[in-house]
Amino acid sequence: MNHSARSYRPLQKMFMEVPPFYDLMNRLLTLRLDSAWRRRAAIQCLENNPERILDLCCGTGDLSMELKSLAPCTTEVAALDYSGPMLDLARKKALKRKLPGIIFQLADASAMPFPDRYFDSVGIAFAFRNLSYRNPDRDQFLAEIFRVLRPGGRFVIVETSQPENNIFRKLFHFYMKHIAAPVGGLLSGHRSAYRYLAHSAVNYYKKEELHDLLCWAGFSKVESRAYMGGIAGIFIATK
Length: 239
Prior knowledge:
Elements: H1 12-17, H2 19-29, H3 33-45, E1 52-56, H4 62-70, E2 76-81, H5 84-96, E3 103-106, E4 119-125, H6 128-132, H7 138-148, E5 149-160, H8 166-188, H9 191-202, H10 207-216, E6 221-227, E7 232-238
Parallel strand pairs: 1-2, 1-4, 2-3, 4-5
Antiparallel strand pairs: 5-7, 6-7
């Protein structure tokens, strides 16, 4: 894949610069709750006893490693991301945790190097917002996810959401804009990355809107589970 500056997607350069701080900031800004939510998503990915699983937009590989540690040893776990530095860190973490065998793939989510109907489950942890929030290529990403998933397969999303309670939603938005964004930017040195994080989280889809989007993309059944009053949620879409 060509990583010249002209080939970068709008968010790609950002995700090539933040890896050294990415895990620390995730844990800090979510009070480590992201780990528990990610584990629940991994369990949902494994609910249909998959032979092949994809961790899409895997970042530093936390979901991939949850899947590898929970799945039978014969289960194929692939992890795809378009950030080389993210994947380098993910490989190092997998070696450190003695979880060999994860297939790390540098590629774009709009053109995945996998055959049609290849995966039984596709999981994505806190990255679907990047693919779908005001992204001009959103429909291509959704079509590609649908393509690589077998009929009956599960697409499992763990992502920020909008609390239904108005007061709780305002508190969440205040936290993202006035605490998470400035603190994350200050500690990481990447202020624009955490301003984007806050802006996209505050303005992201409500639960019903995400349900509708997944149904529009062709999924026949969509279920959801809310956590912390709806600050985060897991969405399970069946092809």
